[in-house]
Amino acid sequence: MRVSMARICRRKAEIVLVMKEIIFEIIFMLTMLLNRCRHRSRFSVANVQRLMRYWMVDRIPQQVEHMKELTELSDVDCFNNLRMNRNTFNHFCYLLRHSGGLVDGRYVSVGEQVVIFLSVLSHHSKVRVVNFFFKRSSHTVHQHFHNVLRVVLNLHGILLATPTPVDDECTHPRWKHFKGCLGALDGTLIDVTVP
Description:
Distance between the termini: 81 Å
Helix content: 55-70%
Order of helices and strands: HHHHHHHHH
Number of helices: 9
């Protein structure tokens, strides 16, 4: 006897809804018991209902969908959001994981940590904006941003190229006037305001 996939999915959705209702009832009963304690304002029904809105179970599908939109659909979307294509992003994650020691968090993978980090850097986003788009708390965004930043700073020897000065014997017409200079002389424009 074959069971269709739609029927199985419907059954799973029904089970999840029943489990949510059971858990909500348990929390509600515990809240009513705690309301009888001396700390009534901390454990109110309104506070429990407010916390119920932010369940991990409800947010996980949205978080997974957002990650897929950013890193798996197309190179154009990935480049527009993270300033690197999918291949570069995957190599960067691999480097941070294996050379830098970045590990998956309890609920946040290395890929999502790097996406949060790159979103903040590439769009100059505030933590509040990023936590809205990634459905994460401000603490989580802040913590994982700094974890990735710490690993990137530790890998500066691998990630950053050391410039070499222009030799005194250089005869190239473009570089011969910059003997002994060090830095970005390849046409890079650096905006500087002279005091």
